[in-house]
Amino acid sequence: MNYNQITVGIVTFRSENVIFNCLKSIKKIENIIILDNSNDEILKKKIKKKYPKIKIILSKKNLGYGAANNKIIRKSKTPFVFILSPDVALKKDCEKNMLKSINKLKNNFSIISPISQYKHYGYLDSDINETEGVQGFAMLVNKKKIMHYGMFDENIFLYAEELDLCKRLRLNNEKIFINKTAKVFHLGAKSTNIGFEFDKCRNWHWGWSKVYFEKKYFNIFLVYLKFSSLLFIQLLKIIFYIALLNKKEVINKSMRFSGALNSLLGRTSWYRPKFNFDR
For residue 142, is it left (φ>0), alpha (ψ between -120 and 50) or beta? Predict the structure, then answer.
């Protein structure tokens, strides 16, 4: 295998502040597809001016992270797709060490992930370690295997889509690995520049997706029992922050409460961030 067998896939949404740093860090892989969920013609022109070979798809509808990555995977013409969040930068030799992983594992994997500065995976005793799941901001997927098991669940708009995918893969005895020699730098929650609206969106979808994931895989009665208690605690937190006159925390906690409640009630992941294109 060589670098021509890999496509980098990046989903953007008002990501002008970070996407160029991400692209600058990609040194070896030439196949790159960007899907922009904010239909940003201006950003497309700026990227094309600097990187004319990059394929850019503008989506008139905000598809969410998972569905947009599914579209990238389908559009790619390579057996492997390296999914990156736009607020990720590859460190030196990341691409080389990811390619080494592919060749060493000889296609016997569904996902390989690099590590970031946050050390999500704890102690790793060898260069390539099998694991139960990985973080969604940087993950290289085996296209054939991923497509066979349904790719990302498009009911999930944001958050937990990688948890759900990894869970399905492991239930089908597919292998997921971490390569500790491949490293990235992840800014974290900086993939978009829509400010506090993104905080509201993140909190709503975190609440919704957490409940959805557990309803999908665990005893439904226990899930309702667990989240009914958590919603009551969240309501107490909202009252607490109202008393402190902390408007920001009241909104964030209310959004998380609303997302979880909507999911418990079986409603779709409907909330979308509000923004305009003023620059």
Answer: beta
3-state secondary structure of 121: coil
Burial of residue 138 (CB within 10 Å: 0-12, 13-18, 19+) is buried
Q: Which phi and psi (to 5°) does residue 273 adopt? A: -65, 145
Angle between helices 65-75 and 161-171 (to 10 degrees): 60
Residue 83 pairs in a beta bridge with 9, 139
CA distances from 136 to 154, 210, 216, 228, 251 (A): 15, 15, 19, 28, 26
| Chain centroid to CA 190 | 12
Nearest CA to 88 among 185, 198, 190? 185
- Model confidence pTM above 0.90: yes
Confidence of residue 275 (pLDDT cuts 50, 70, 90): low
Determine contact, residues 139/162, Cβ cutoff 8 Å: yes
Taking each continuous run of H as one helix and of E as one strand, the counts in the chain are: 9, 9
Rounded Cα–Cα distance for residues 272 and 185 (Å): 27
Give me the sign of the Cα torsion angle 174, 80, 89, 67: negative
Q: Are 26 and 263 in contact (CB under 8 A)?
A: no
